[in-house]
Write a structure and sequence with these properties.
331 residues, alpha+beta, Beta Polymerase, domain 2, 7 strands, rod-shaped, cobalt ion transmembrane transporter activity
Amino acid sequence: MHEGDNAQWGLVHAFVLNGKGGARSIARQAMQGLVLGEHESLWLHWDRSHPQTHTWLRVESGLSNFACDLLLEENTRPRLLALPEQQLLLFLRGLNLNPGAEPEDMVSVRIFADAQRAISLRLRPLHATEALIEDLLAGRGPKTSAELILRLAHYLTDKIELLVGELSEQVDDQEERADALESQAPDHSALLQIRRRAASLRRFLAPQRDIYGQLTASAQAWLVGADSSYWNELNNRLTRYLEELELSRERVNLLLEAENRRMDERMNHTMYRFGIITGIFLPMSFLTGLLGINVGGIPGSESPHGFLLACSLMALVALVQWLLFRRLRWI
């Protein structure tokens, strides 16, 4: 009931975390004058495209104009920005798993957080937030705003592993195809698509990996605390995925280079054959042209055996050339 009412205001989800892994959903109107308990935290998840979201952020959220401007920027990359009073802005990216979308066309989630509050904004639906809500409703979710951010980053990273593995398997298939069918080149368009997808992922995963590294050493105790090892693990996982993507790109480049060499060799072999054929027929073309000039004194013009003699002469020239080319090992 709350979600339907909240959607009119651009509020996708609103939960109060009870500090024990569970949460209760609240309506937009209940946010006015809401007092959190000692162990409670507030999570508000907004639709960034909704006009009411902009109004609430600038008028009711209590955030500075600087923070609102950054949260509502049209385009942004993964980044981490510490704010005064133990607050932070965190922009992350996740795979676009919406129907009809390309997964590497990554969607953004923008988060403002402090010790008892997390405000997140998205433009397109994120499966990671849905998984997070399932955990909260089952009573096994995050207990604090810091754990909520960590759990969200964890789900975003899990989805990336599947796509990186899929790209690696596609490269494996193309390599097997090239090895098994030497006369048939790998799928050029498929290789280019794999390289493009890997580049798109690296564009956002590299700065996101660095963010996880920064969070490991963050000075904000409420955020890291005992969770520094988990942020470090996320950093290591993204580092491994980036290495896998770089390896996939190198393998694609090697396959493309092998394909280019194969095409060059095929072209050179074809041109070589054309050269041999041209070399054989060039003297015969000279003879036919010489005998075909319309002047008097052409040998055999009056003889009934002239045509046969001319053909025999050209056959003899062709035989001598063939023997010469064989001796020179040109054929």
